[in-house]
Amino acid sequence: MFIDIHTHQLSGDHQQVYVLDPRDLPKEIPKLSCLGIHPWYIEEFPEYIAFLKKELNNINIFALGEIGIDKSISTELPIQKKYFEA
């Protein structure tokens, strides 16, 4: 199966995957959702790890994404590594 999760097209014969930002979740999580936070925003969401542990039990969330290491931002690498490893 091919899944393209980086597209800006709103039409076509494909199933849509939702990439959700935990800072702004909808009231109802759509099916086929991916949850994660980009390293740029981890300092804005210090309770992120506890939040993920709770929300990843949601049946509609099938993947974890948008987590990584970005050397071009001001957030210190040890902080980024903490979130990445968790």
Report on the biggest sheet.
3 strands, parallel
Give the H and E element order: EEHEH
> What do the pLDDT scores average to?
79
The whole-angstrom Rg is 14 Å
- Tell me the overall shape: globular
Output the keywords.
single chain, alpha/beta, three-stranded parallel sheet, 2 helices, globular
What does this protein structure show overall?
The chain is α/β, with parallel strands linked by helices and 86 residues long. Helix content is 20%, strand content 12%. The chain is built from two helices and three strands. It has helices at residues 48-55, 77-85; strands at residues 18-20, 33-35, 61-64. A three-stranded parallel sheet has the order 1-2-3, with no helix packed on it. The longest helix is centred in the last third of the chain and has 9 residues, at 77-85. It is globular and about 40 Å long. 12% of the residues are buried.
Helix and strand topology:
Elements: E1 18-20, E2 33-35, H1 48-55, E3 61-64, H2 77-85
Parallel strand pairs: 1-2, 2-3
Provide a concise account of the structure shown.
By secondary structure, the protein is α/β, with parallel strands linked by helices. The protein has helices at 48-55, 77-85; strands spanning 18-20, 33-35, 61-64.
